[in-house]
Design brief:
The chain has 426 residues and is an alpha/beta fold. It is built from 14 helices and 17 strands. It has two domains: 116 residues, Urease, subunit C, domain 1 (Roll), CATH 2.30.40; 284 residues, TIM Barrel. The structure holds zinc ion.
Length: 426
Amino acid sequence: MQCDLIIKGKYILPMDDKLTVIKNGFVAVLENKIVGLGAGDEIKNYQAKETIDVGNSIVMPGLVNTHTHAAMAYFRGLADDLPLDIWLNQHIWPAEAKYVNAEFVKQAGELACLEMIKAGVTTYNDMYFFGKSMAEPAIRAGLRALIGITILDFKNPTEGIGEAVSLAKQYKNNEFVKIILAPHAIYTCSKENLLKIKAVADAENMRLHIHVSETKKEVDDCLSAHGKTPVEYLDELEMLSDRLMAAHSVWLNDNDLEIYKNRGVKVAHCPISNMKLASGAAPLKRMLEMGITVGLGTDGAASNNTLDLFSDMRACALMHKVNNFDPTAISAKEVVKMATIGGAKVLGMDKEIGSLQAGKKADIITINLNKPHLAPVYNPYSHLVYCVSHDDVENVIVNGKVIMKNREVKTLDEEKILKRTSGFTV
Ligand SMILES: [Zn+2]
């Protein structure tokens, strides 16, 4: 059959249920979709307009970053080595009040998109302010994004909800962005506001993105105020469903885990952010054993301090091994699943993205293995978690379009963005 593009490489990782590795294989793309993949002579069944032979490389689905605040890229390194409440109250929120406006979100968002493309992320789940300014960089960059309008009691919540509903209509048919509701947390949104958000989410069939049980303090405060854990409190408000994406979810007890499982709640696990803010280690092993859907997130660049999901993959594996005193607690394969198809499931997009499969959208990255730190190769999954770094990503394809070729980003002006960023100071 005729197709537009063929990507040939030494290790094709489709991220299917069997976690197959196709050696010396190819992926065929027609328009914005994958039409076939295979090995050897099967390639003769496809006549492509363009063939990219990436040789000694891994070809895999684009990574899915399930929790970020893209525009916080401009606050990278602004305040480190602090507990979450002091970091937020004394540093981040004052800086946001002073500097964040529509233009800031657009410019910092472009920096974040540039960084994510160069690190192999093709879809991200964002939570911030000025929805239109959040959406524009993703569309320009050619990345997929869930744009979560953050709602906080102290930031005119009614306006935030209205903005989300009106933008959702505006971007309804957009290929790249989808607008969702993002109540910040139970400690920044009142019961009344949470209930309003839930009613709108139900009526408009919108996803919800919220920080849940990130720190012990959040859980202790909730127990004192409501006699319930944050998960029990959200469940009482009937907020929990398979449309809710719970970032962090570090401090969960057995009952909380059962509630997550029963309601189909999706988890965005952010190991580096949780370690940096010393929030704790989420019960990942239990969640995976129980069949709870978990993806990986970087969180914002102010609490990581990069948007490099490869770092979080490695941190995730190491964190849960040491936390369980068990090197078998989580395998490299499980971590790569979380960063791809797992993330797609968290975002409710697994029918479209997250694996290389005929009929799915062509969101594909290639990783160049011709590097000293990547030789030799016995197991590509092991390399992805324990050896590969963001700048080993060589090509990025989203929706069938090559947006980075040989590390040159085609959709954004890297030089201009870096020059503009170096001119921004707080
Ligand atoms: Zn966050």
